[in-house]
Design goal:
Mean pLDDT: 77
Strand content: 25-35%
Radius of gyration: 25 Å
Oligomer: single chain
Low-confidence stretches: 47-64, 79-91, 100-121
Distance between the termini: 41 Å
Number of domains: 3
Number of strands: 19
Order of helices and strands: HHHHHHEEEEEEEEEEEEEEHEHEEHEE
Structural class: alpha+beta
């Protein structure tokens, strides 16, 4: 869900709290019908599967109203109205937090995905991309981040101090807003990435050998390997920075499909089907395998632009006279 749609969280929250007017219900219904994505989001919310992507959205729900209602109910049940000042302050604080918890529980959200953290006195939000649809985030400084499926990004609602720091687990493409006075820093688990304003792709936990991979599209990126200070490298456009268990290095990018997960533009040039299936598995998040080892040695030259996985597999099967068997999230390729 794009962050410019976040205003609808208030409306959704009111709906689940049974506080919507008829006009608000009509407005929400129109939003749901605008796209399949909106409908999917709303349905997932109803089954406790989808989460709000910014804790600020949760804070904008009318917590004061819920607090007042809860406070009135407690007082009506016989609570003493004349408390000592320090006890009253304590009670008010407890009531307000209790109202927030009651309200969130009423919405049916899984609170463990969106939480508060102490990061320079600022609230922290964590966004997890659960599918391939519109996983775009706009950070407080205007930086755009595109999260790959099953990846997560943690960031504050404001960037305090002299830097802009976020934490990434998985894969994301960053288009960083320029600010020479405030470097943008990514905590990528085994490495730290620092930039002033550029665009690049970061991938953590690549495989058993590679911890972090950084492909630079524009500008320059500085990469530090944690526990290997002060060693660092500068990576220029068209190159890839690689952090392994034992070293940090850079090399020219030779992977034509390094950004295919985001663009869905895929190119194969005499690639063995073994590599083709690995690429498609990463782009479409499916498991593709062949029941015959010989199939994996066939070579494919083709390109695909924003096509679904079924049409790509169909081209491959027609090209090599193969058959396909779909089962759950797996695709099995067999000889015809």
């Amino acid at each position: 869900m794009k962050t410019n749609d976040i205003k609808y969280w208030d409306l959704i929250a009111k709906y689940f709290a049974n506080e919507c007017t008829d006009n608000e219900i009509k407005k929400l219904d129109q939003w749901i019908k605008q796209s399949a994505e909106h409908k999917n989001i709303f349905n997932q919310l109803k089954t406790d599967q989808k989460l709000i992507n910014r804790n600020r959205a949760m804070e904008r729900v009318n917590v004061d109203s819920a607090w007042d209602k809860l406070k009135s109910r407690i007082e009506a049940e016989g609570h003493e109205q004349e408390e000592k000042k320090n006890k009253t302050i304590s009670l008010n604080r407890i009531l307000k937090y209790a109202a927030m918890i009651v309200l969130v529980a009423g919405l049916g959200f899984l609170f463990n995905k969106i939480y508060q953290d102490n990061w320079g006195y600022y609230s922290i939000a964590e966004y997890t991309a659960e599918n391939e649809v519109s996983n775009e985030i706009i950070l407080p400084d205007g930086t755009k981040v595109y999260l790959n499926e099953n990846s997560s990004l943690k960031f504050p609602d404001q960037f305090p101090g002299t830097s802009r720091k976020v934490k990434l687990n998985g894969e994301a493409f960053f288009d960083v807003a320029k600010n020479k006075e405030k470097p943008f820093i990514i905590d990528a688990q085994k490495a730290e990435i620092r930039v002033l304003g550029t665009s690049f792709n970061v991938r953590t936990n690549v495989d058993d050998d590679v911890d972090v991979e950084v492909y630079v599209e524009t500008g320059k990126v500085e990469i530090f390997k944690k526990k290997l200070a002060p060693e660092n490298i500068i990576v220029e456009p068209g190159n890839v920075g690689i952090v392994t268990k034992s070293e940090i290095k850079k090399q020219e990018n030779t992977n034509l499909n390094i950004m295919a997960w985001k663009t869905k533009d895929i190119v194969f040039r005499e690639d063995r089907l073994r590599n083709v299936f690995n690429t498609l598995s990463r782009v479409y998040h499916v498991n593709i395998y062949a029941d015959n080892e010989g199939i994996l040695n066939y070579r494919l030259t083709s390109s695909f632009k924003n096509q679904d996985i079924e049409s790509v597999i169909e081209v491959i099967c027609v090209t090599f006279n193969l058959k396909v068997d779909y089962k759950n999230n797996e695709i099995r390729i067999v000889k015809n």
